[in-house]
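Take a look at this chain, tokens included, and explain the fold to me:
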Amino acid sequence: MSNSLFVITGDDEYAIDHKARVIVDQTCPQEEQALGLETIAGDVNLVDEAVEVLQKVLGAIQTVGFFGGRKTVWLRDARMFSGSLPGTSDEVKKVVEVLKNLIKTGLPEGHVLVISGQKFDKRGAFMKVAKSEGEIVEFKLPEKEKEADQAAKDRVADTWKAIGLKPAGAGVMALFVQVVGGDTRRLMQETEKLATYKGAADRTVTVADIHAVVAPGRESISWSLADHTGHRKLGPALEVYRQLLFQGESPVALIFGLESRFRDLLVLKECHQRKWVRLEGNESYRKAVWSVDAEGEEWLDGLSRDPRKVHPYRTMLLLNQAAKYTLKELVLIQRQLAETHLQLVSSSLPSALALELMLIRVIGKPADKR
């Protein structure tokens, strides 16, 4: 590498840190890092701390290395270039100005400066200098949910292929991402757990493997509540619900997820009864297939969310849940959820208890016993 300045930033914390580590290893081989690498933590929030960190960087980059003058300085998790405090303070700006001038003049021969951190302000003066004098690597996550979900699947697919893991079916990787969430670091950590669990002999990942060892992310735990409720599993639903309350989740936020889930189940139940959607395949892999007539096209086009745009595997899972309820039950549950939602925001009854009672009513009794 010919550059002496590398700036790695963006939205993806894991990708930023991983790329910075790769650059550090390329500019300073591991056998030389004990004496040729200086890592400085930049995850500070106070102005005085930011000034001290930047002064350490200035001192480190101007100190001669042990290996023929070669040296790499890594400012890791830097927070003073994000366009907010502490970087916007005058004291920090003065030290950043010194660093900019040093970069413009040229770092000492054989010295490399690597700066990594999230969401640096590209309009800031430092980034303008970095763009002209060094190399900037940016990892930007997609803003749209569908694109972010596909990006996460692509990252997992590349990683699994590299380490020899193979999904047993088309829906396995989609389930893995759904359970873990889109955070790259957690996806890589859970992939490592799966690889260790599978061992060297059998590298095929099944749905059962994911359920056995993969820890759900915070967001996917909320999905688990909706899934257990959709499958009419009262015990697991209450267990997940109480876990979410312990984590500080609001019952009002949780009921939004339940309302959304049962709205989807009601729509799919109606579509299935009208023969607009059906399940095809065998026990090892089934998927949803749409066959919509003119009436169905008009009906579905009028919905705020078109179920035909959902992944066929996901639709299959929701159809299995919808089969647990009659159409009459789903209509009644929609009304009960709306009433409970109103109760959560207007009643003196503790909201945690109100939603728990709702879960018991939804899951506990079929329609003919209500």
Remarks:
- The chain has a mean pLDDT of 87.
